[in-house]
Amino acid sequence: MDVELKAITKRFGAVVANKDVTLQVRAGEVLGLLGENGAGKSTLMNVLCGLYRPDEGQIVINGTPVQFTNPGDAIAAGIGMVHQHFMLVPVFTVAENVVLGVEPVGRLNHLDLKTASAKVREISARYGLTVDPDALIETLPVGVQQRVEIIKVLFRSADVLILDEPTAVLTPQEVEDFFGIVRSLRDAGKAIIFITHKLNEILEIADRISVLRAGRIVGESDPATATKADLAEVMVGRPVHFEVDRSGAAPGDAMLVIKDLTVLRDDNTIAVDNVSLTVRGGEVLGIAGVQGNGQSALIQAITGLMPAARGTIRFLGQDITHASVRARHKLGLAHIPEDRQRMGLIPDFTVAENMVLDSYYDPRYARGPQVQWDAVNQWAATAAAAFDVRTTSVFAKAGHLSGGNQQKLIVARELSRDTKAVIAAQPTRGLDVGSIEYIHSRLMAARAEGDAVLIMSSELDEILALSDRIVVMFKGRIVAEFDANVEKPEKSQIGLAMAGVAA
Amino acid sequence: MNGAETLQRPNAAIDLGARRRTRIVGAILILLAAFVVVVLGDAPGDATFRLSRPRDVWVLPDLIVPAQPFIYIAAALTAFLGARQFLRGGGRWTTLSLGLGLGLGVLAFLVWATAGNAFSLTGMLQATMVRAVPIALGGLAAVMCERVAVVNIAVEGMLLAGAFTGALMGSVVGGWGGLLSAVVIGGLFGFILAALVVTYRMDQIIAGVVINLFVLGLTSYVSSQVFAEMRHLNNAPVFRAIDIPLLSDIPVIGPMLFQQNIFVYGALIMVAVSTYYLFHTRNGLRARAVGEHPRAADTLGIDVYRTRYLHVTIGGMIAGFGGAWFTLGSVGRFDENMTGGRGFIGLAAMVFGRWHPVGALMAALVFGFTDSLQQKLALLQTPIPSEFLAMAPYVATIVVVAGLIGRARPPAADGKPYVKE
Ligand SMILES: Nc1ncnc2c1ncn2[C@@H]1O[C@H](COP(=O)(O)OP(=O)(O)O)[C@@H](O)[C@H]1O
Ligand SMILES: [Mg+2]
Prior knowledge:
The structure holds two protein chains of two kinds.
Chain A: E1 3-12, E2 15-25, E3 30-35, H1 41-48, E4 56-61, E5 64-66, H2 71-76, E6 79-82, H3 94-99, H4 113-127, H5 142-155, E7 160-164, H6 172-187, E8 191-196, H7 199-205, E9 208-213, E10 216-221, H8 228-236, E11 254-264, E12 270-280, E13 284-288, H9 295-303, E14 310-315, E15 318-319, H10 325-331, E16 333-336, H11 340-344, H12 351-355, E17 366-367, E18 370-371, H13 373-386, H14 403-415, E19 421-425, H15 433-448, E20 452-456, H16 460-466, E21 469-474, E22 477-483, H17 491-498
Parallel strand pairs in A: 3-8, 3-9, 6-7, 7-8, 13-20, 13-21, 16-19, 19-20
Antiparallel strand pairs in A: 1-2, 1-4, 4-5, 9-10, 11-12, 11-14, 14-15, 17-18, 21-22
Chain B: H1 2-40, E1 46-50, E2 63-66, H2 67-88, H3 92-114, E3 117-120, H4 121-146, H5 155-173, H6 175-199, H7 204-227, E4 242-243, H8 253-258, E5 259-260, H9 262-280, H10 282-292, H11 294-299, H12 304-331, H13 342-352, H14 357-380, H15 386-405
Parallel strand pairs in B: 1-3
Antiparallel strand pairs in B: 1-2, 4-5
Helix pairs in contact in B: 1-2, 1-3, 2-3, 3-15, 4-9, 4-12, 4-13, 4-14, 5-6, 5-7, 5-12, 5-13, 6-7, 6-12, 9-10, 9-12, 13-14, 13-15, 14-15
The complex binds adenosine-5'-diphosphate (ADP) and magnesium ion.
Adenosine-5'-diphosphate binds next to β2 and α1 of chain A.
């Protein structure tokens, strides 16, 4: 089955999410749809699967124009979508989720779950999608849940499969398995639209690539000849540097000194075990480690969100072990937290309000107990422009920004004042190349100004690209240390240390 | 290696929690045994329980229990269950022991109160069923709404509207006409609630409170201004009990389940039908999906708004039927605010019953049991102040069912409006 989108335009109020988008996909091929976060990929696909109605333009299937008034119409026409955020009912079984909406029934409208399970088994066997039809969704790992989503689409005999950022939640091993599934579907004659912002993946899996930027199609390319750099440039709209310039390391005095620090979790188990660290001005210290080895607790102890059970934290010569968060902040400690939605900002507050979460009480924005909104809004607009936060206005809800812009908003708030140390946890998790590049450049700028920079990340590439020195945490302890300015460490060396294998 | 470790940790925490619960239950049971001995220990004479009434077909002999020995044995058993909890309780035993212990406690109490007296057990069980009906129906109405994620605080108002309409229309056009009108009015208020919260996305709690206040105000006004003058408008026929042939002759069970009026039969049938509907039919599965993950339902072509309208309206009709019980099923006359919070108890029954129709019925029965026990005890003239006895049903509903059933999970989208784009 061939599907064509013709000149689709979709607006949300003043936001134009898609503008004049034309796209086609044929049976037996994988179309890669590439675009940064917020480019409008999900919106376009929600139009194709009948969830949104286009403001302009038309959908053509096998040469005949069609109109979908609800997702049921699109399903009936053979279009199935695996959404970025899974559309599974957690308390239902796999079989119940798969048949929902097209349930086989017997007499008295009685649900025929036996037939449903049998069908699920049959589809599993045909496409190599192993899953137990009677398992509850909430007990399954995300990789398996994704298979359920695909079975769901196949159960409705879809010929066109839309996969919206399917690899975002998968581990590298799961991604390989997943690509195998996609290829077998393609070979079975399905048309597949594969959405991603990851360049490696699109080059590996797509037969054809279309690039979406700011709601428009800005280029098409052939994965056989295209390079990562070309694609990145089309996607972002300017040349992208994958390498971070780390020249001119000029470490100064020790600014952040941690000694014998122990931090306990809520249940009194040890999260950080007797850790000592020093970060000097003008250097980046990277903390590597598999998630759950105490890195988060260490960062939260430094920023004052978790109490230290033992040991001291000194910042600029002062003991801040038990200082309040605001006191640390006033000393010049900036914190880019791990979870931007939960710790970094308040999604229901506006961009302007989020910009002053840390400084609304400052005489610049407040007269006594009264907030001076004019001053706040003005400053927020300036900061948003300076830090490339793309938003319709400073009055937009922060929760409506794309992930990259939310993160840039946090970076703007934290770095636009006079900082002495920057603590960044997972600063680019889930972001597109453009935002990653931007945030990296800002962190390096802080380093150039002589700040002490501490970065925690589970992406080893990121740690390697940014850090002057690297420490590896395992089970709450520091198990290895590398000086990247002396000799660039091998990835495998760090990887072994992360797995707890002594060097 | 590391993954396995992080996976084990939460389990260990859960284990600790379970062990603590085991111990707490053990302590409660031992305290209960002590209470039974110390407070109820002095009960001279025999307690006589009548299992049959003189005119019954099959007459069972009276159950005569020597009070003091029974109370001591009950206390000993409860203490044994409690001690067992500390030694090797846990798992299913925890809930089972608590249930048994509480049951023994209630029996001991009953024997103590009846000591030297006679008491009709059959009559009390029959009354239990009757008193449970409006609560079970209120709970069932709420289950229907919350399963599609609409919180229905307005159950109380819908019961009251059903009671009022039943009395008024029952007086004018007769019992069946009154019942039908009550159902229609309940459905109408359900539809209004759906319109307010689904289409206009009004806060669900506030919409419910508005309906409750509106119905209370209107019915109170009419009953004090109009009914006071024109008594013939507030004088409806009452549905009498219908004996089911054969089944009604079974001792004890017969009078409780098969010598009742259509409200009791209606409630039992509705509970059965809605259980089948929600958990074994296509539309039930879709309704539950709308309550758990409306967006997922939407992406599969299920109309979220229509589903919500439909089920909230049905919930309203059930509540209207339950409301008619107050007038057409019992006294035939409407009094100001005569539902007296039964709708809210129904909501509690829904929560304790884990959003399941049968669970809601069970919780309603616990309430009904304590309520009728309380009435009987007032007649037996025990030394307990009547105010405390009147409190008992509410306290018992909370303690027993919360203790036995534990934490339940409401539908995930409960109370949240669904916005399409
Ligand atoms: N329901 C919505 N209401 C308002 N704006 C929206 C909505 N959904 C998406 N947008 C906006 O449309 C743009 C495109 O979003 P989206 O399609 O999710 O991008 P992508 O999937 O490429 O990351 C973004 O600017 C986003 O903020
Ligand atoms: Mg998206």
